[in-house]
Amino acid sequence: MNFVEINNIAKSYGSHKALQETSFSVKKGELFGVIGPDGAGKTTLFRILTTLLLADSGSANIAEFDVLKDYKKIRQIVGYMPGRFSLYQDLTVEENLAFFATIFGTTIKENYELIKDIYVQIEPFKDRQAGKLSGGMKQKLALSCALIHKPEILILDEPTTGVDAVSRKEFWDLLRKFKNMGITIIVSTPYMDEASLCDRVALIQQGKIMQINTPDNIINNYKPILFEIHSNNMHDLLIKLRKYHNNSNVFLFGQTVHYSSINEISKDDLKMYLKNNGHANVEINVCTPTIEDCFLWLMKQNN
Amino acid sequence: MEKEKAISVKNLVKKFGDFVANDNLTFDVYKGEIFGFLGANGAGKTTTLKILCGLSKPTSGQINVAGFNVYTETNKIKNNIGYMSQKFSLYEDLTVYENIRFYGGIYGLKLKDIRKRADELIQKLGLTNVRNELLSSIPLGWKQKLAFSVAIFHHPKIVFLDEPTGGVDPVTRREFWDMIYDAAEEEITVIVTTHYMDEAEYCNRVCIMVDGRIEAIDTPAQLIKNQNATNMNDVFIQLARKEKIK
Q1: Same domain flag for A142 and A49
Q2: To probe the interface with B, which of A38, A236, A288 has the most B CB atoms within 10 Å?
Q3: What percent of chain B is predicted at pLDDT more than 90?
Q4: A174 and A135 within one domain
Q5: What pLDDT was estimated at residue B244?
Q6: Residue A63's pLDDT is what?
Q7: Residue at which a domain ends, from A181, A214, A247
């Protein structure tokens, strides 16, 4: 059953097309990721879904409620965490939480079980003003406030941006837990490695969704040949590889360079070329693409 | 021959009341090095960076930046460094050219030189068509590249980059690193913080801070080897999490 349905939603700001005609659906209980850089249109999409912004065209509904006609009902069942910290800075941790609970006609006590695991981590600071919390703690408080009315769906706009790798991992463990409790989740992120933690993802760039699928299928759909190459002089390796062939992508990936091409490229020829260009000790291996490889290739096709 | 030091830190301690934000840090950064500064949120990175930029005084320790003392010569330090972060970089309500002119002026360059070098820079970055557009109207990726170029416009000895690539698309993120390599080749020392662990692997050396202390400092390859890990992400999670479990 589709819990969220988006049909041909589009939005422009003046002459800038923030979101081109976009359609997709999210199933009940699904953990759905919207993956793309700043300016891709993620926030615009989320604000339309949460009834905070009107689309220029198209329609969308959540739990069969229309974002236009039934906006009040949608607001009751959605837990929204905006990208920018938007709690009351001059209220304490506990006051913020109590405020959001009251607005939704509930109490902290009634739904405490749901937020317990997150809230215990910030409870020692419950009398501190929200504006004086560290980044990680603000994030936990914002999530607690989004959950306190026991929403059917969580819409989280870049909850892990600017958060360190350890805290990001913990945050995703939490999302898994909420998913297992039956809450539908739509989450956006600029970190490509987080795609593998979602059931399905939409890869979005410049207002356009490039592909929607499970992370595994996105990787299976990757057509080009992909080599992982290492040499003693990585900076020069990049320069030489960029000159080797047209229609290829050459990018640093950690300790290696990823070289991809739709042409038939022989490993031995490539090795010989690099040897003739001053790279005697190169290692070339065929490798499995990451979501970032897929994203880079789709970007190339779209340009 | 000993490598020339751009930054020398001995026994740096910084306390806020009872809270020890930097707990006895000792490290050197060499000229032309790309030095990565990693740590969980709240590990003390920002405190250290502020001290190195001359914006905050340490509680104790001997610290030299670009050959100047952080207690007594903060103005000289500020003249010899560049700084860029994702949160604050350029003025949105100035044009591309005005931003360059403004920063050039702040660093005391002559208007004639600013004009000439601004033209070169605008051409190099491919911003000729948007030269007189407000910054708010150009894409984030362009802004970040311009912000970095402006931060090194006065040829500083050291440039500090605080999460420079947050939210930037994967292509621009890598183009940004090409610019970092170019700066390092011109012997500008680069201090960079990031939450992208693949970027940690592009640094010459990396320092990982945990709870105000330096947990590890070495080349990425050596850190990966020491931790018996496959990449810097594993290294970071092992080192930073160890502290959390305690």
Answers
A1: yes
A2: A38
A3: 78
A4: yes
A5: 52
A6: 97
A7: A214
d(CA B17, CA A188): 38
Query: Per DSSP, which regions of chain A are E strands?
Result: 2-13, 16-27, 31-35, 57-62, 65-66, 78-81, 153-156, 184-189, 200-205, 208-213, 225-230, 248-253, 256-261, 283-286
How far from B223 is each of A50, B48, B238, CA to CA, in Å? 45, 22, 11
Distance from CA of A295 to the nearest CA of B (A): 8
Read off the pTM. Answer: 0.88
Q: Quick count: other Cβ atoms within 10 Å of Cβ A268?
A: 8
Show the domain range for A263: 222-302
Measured distance CA(A187)–CA(A153) in Å, rounded = 11
Q: For B9-39, what is each residue's pLDDT tens digit?
A: 999 999 999 999 999 999 999 999 999 999 9
pLDDT of res. A168: 87
How far is residue A88's CA from residue A103's CA, in Å, rounded to a whole number?
14
pLDDT at A233: 86
Q: Domain with A141 in it: what CATH number? A: 3.40.50.300
CATH of the domain at A289: 3.30.70
Q: What are phi and psi of A149, to 5 degrees?
A: -95, 20
At a CB cut-off of 8 Å and minimum separation 6, what does A35 contact?
A188, A189, A190, A192, A194, A195, A201, A202, A203, A204, A291, A295
What does the pLDDT look like over B163-198, one tens digit per residue? Answer: 898 888 898 899 999 899 999 989 999 999 998 888
Are A199 and A232 in the same domain? no
| A140-157: average pLDDT | 95
Q: Is the ipTM here above 0.90? A: no
Is A246 in the same domain as A165? no
Eight-class DSSP state of A197: G
Residue-wise pLDDT tens digits, B122-161? 999 999 999 999 998 888 888 989 999 999 999 999 999 9
Contact list, A295 vs chain B (CB under 8 Å) = 170
Q: Which domains can be identified in chain B, with CATH numbers? A: 5-245 (3.40.50.300)
The whole-angstrom separation of Cα A257 and Cα B67 is 36
Interface contact flag, B174 A164, Cβ < 8 Å: no
Count of the separate structural domains present in chain A: 2
Residues of chain A with Cβ-Cβ distance to B198 below 8 Å are 252-254
Averaging pLDDT over each range in A118-132, A205-219, B159-173, which range is the top one? A205-219
Mean pLDDT, residues B109-130: 94
Q: A165 vs B140: CB contact, 8 Å cut-off?
A: no
Question: Could you tell me if B136 and B92 are in contact, meaning their C-beta atoms sit under 8 angstroms apart?
Answer: yes
Q: In the listed set A164, A180, A214, which residue is the last one of a domain according to the structure? A: A214
A301 touches chain B (CB under 8 A): no
Q: What is the pLDDT of residue A10?
A: 97
DSSP state letters, A55-72: -SEEEEEETTEETTTTHH
CA distance, residue B182 to nearest chain A CA (Å): 10
- Does one domain contain both A93 and A205? yes
